[in-house]
Amino acid sequence: MKKIFSEQYGCSASLSDNEMMLGLLKESGFEIGNNPKDSDLNIIVTCSVKVPTTQRMKYRITELTNLKKPLIVAG
Questions:
Q1: Tens digit of each residue's pLDDT (9 = 90 or more) over 14-64
Q2: How confident is residue 13, by pLDDT bands cut at 50, 70 and 90?
Q3: Domain count, the chain
Q4: Other beta carbons less than 10 A from residue 30's beta carbon
Q5: SS (H, E, C) 10-31
Q6: Residues in contact with 19: Cβ distance below 8 Å, sequence separation at least 6, in sequence order
Q7: Which residues have a Cβ under 8 Å from the Cβ of 45 and sit 6 or more positions away?
Q8: Is 37 exposed, middle or buried (0-12, 13-18, 19+ CB in 10 A)?
Q9: How far is the C-alpha of 64 from the C-alpha of 60, rounded, in Å?
Q10: Would you say 71 and 43 are in contact if contact means Cβ atoms under 8 Å apart?
Q11: In 42-68, which positions are buried (b, 16+ CB within 10 angstroms) versus exposed (e)?
Q12: Of the candidates 19, 14, 16, 22, which has an alpha carbon nearest to the alpha carbon of residue 53?
């Protein structure tokens, strides 16, 4: 079973999108993990309307990319 890790940042729409995606992925047989290091795929769902969120996302994307695992950024 493939394990997925997901984080959500930003507005309430991002929270809702993340919950929907995780529900669909779980229904499709994926396991939802708690640690990006143990996952097969990492997902960030974000809203980058505000500058502080944008800066935080750039940093977090770099961190997760360094794990050498597939990363999806959505939002």
A1: 889 999 999 999 999 999 999 999 999 999 998 866 777 788 888 999 999
A2: confident
A3: 1
A4: 17
A5: CCHHHHHHHHHHHHHHHHCCCE
A6: none
A7: 6, 7, 8, 9, 14, 17, 18, 21, 74, 75
A8: exposed
A9: 6
A10: yes
A11: bbbbbbbeeeebeeebeebeeebeeee
A12: 14
Q: What is the pLDDT of residue 57?
A: 86
Tell me if 73 sits within 8 A of 47, measured CB to CB.
no
Distance of alpha carbon 33 from alpha carbon 21, whole angstroms: 14
CB 74 within 8 A of CB 21: yes
Structure tokens at 51: 């500058």
Tokens 């995780």 sit on residue: 22
CATH of the domain at 49: 3.40.50
